[in-house]
Each structure stands twice: as C-alpha cells, then as structure tokens.
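Recap from last week: sequence in, structure out.
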Amino acid sequence: MKVEEALKYEPVLKVKEGENLKKVDVAEYDKNKGVYNGSTAKFFDGSSGNFHLMPPEDKVEEKCPKKEIEEKRNNVYNLLKLNKKQGWDLTRNGKGRNSDYHSLFDYLRVKVDNRNYDLMFFRMAINKNDKKVKCALKSIQFAVTVDEHSCDKYPMSLQDNDKKEGENYFQYYNPEVSYEEDDKIVDAFIKFIERNEENIYKSIEK
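Predicted structure tokens:
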C-alpha cells in the first residue's frame, strides 16, 4: 500500500477491558506528512507497510496500560524461553523503550530458518471497503512473515479467527485465547509455529 492511499484510512484504536473493547482517542496526524503532531510516531510506516495507531502522549498512562503490557510481554517471554524448541531463535522486537509509548507495539519473535513468527500483544485489522484500520491493545495476534510486513495481510476483523481444526493459518492470525492466561498464549503460539512448519514440509514433499 502506498502512503497516499494509507492516509485515506480512518484509524480506530481500542483497549481491551475485561471482555469489552473501549475506544481510545488516536493522536492527531498530519495527512500531508503522515506523522502524529510532527513527532516521529508515524500513522503509516511506508518502509514496513504497517500502520501504527498511537494514543496522544499525555493519555498513554491514563488510557493505555503501558506498564501492564510490558509486564505481560516479559512474563510471556520467560515462559516461551522455557518452552521453545531446538533451533528456534527467540528475540524481543520493536523500536520502543520502556519509557517510550512506542513500546505499546513491541512484540516477541521466534525465528525458524528464514521465517519470522511474531507474538503481538495487540491486534491489527483493516477493512478496505469502509477505509478503516483498527488496532486493539491487550489482545493477542500471531503473524508469520519471511522478511516482510504489510498491512495488506492484516485480517479484516479484530475478532477471534474461526478457522477449523487442521486448516492452514493465514499470515496474521487472531487466536482464541484469553489475554490474561499466559500459559495458554504460549501454548497457542507454539502450536501456531508447529502447524506452519508442518505445512511447509508437507508442501516440500509433494
């Protein structure tokens, strides 16, 4: 997607509170520059093809539980470190620092050969019909990429995927797991990786 097209989309940012998603203000952005209030926080990153929906800086702690998300990410990282398979390279990814609101969008990555499996603590969705791009913080999303990112691969909904057992996963996947249950998040992510790897080897054997 080109920057000009991306900036026609309406950004919708939500935060999960219990079972509900509560809408949060998105920082104002300059449609001509594609940035929020002249800062380095981009509405759309042309280099990666990804949207970044940032809350206003002065409302991060009030509206978006940054510290809580960081703690969750650390807990899941430690669990994943204990359960990862041989040959899996686990890293923390993202440009954020603990004192920086960019860290809302940091994620965990397992690299298997040239494939990147990402565990995100937010969900992205895009609807090209009504020109909306949505983000839900405190929700789990998985992705598998090969040195690429693109909003064109976002699912159309923030809802859990309803794929049947045994089907191939899409590149972005919304697992049916509770944000509160770290063990289940890790189990679902490992299963996501294993299934994708199995499908890769099955396709090679054909």
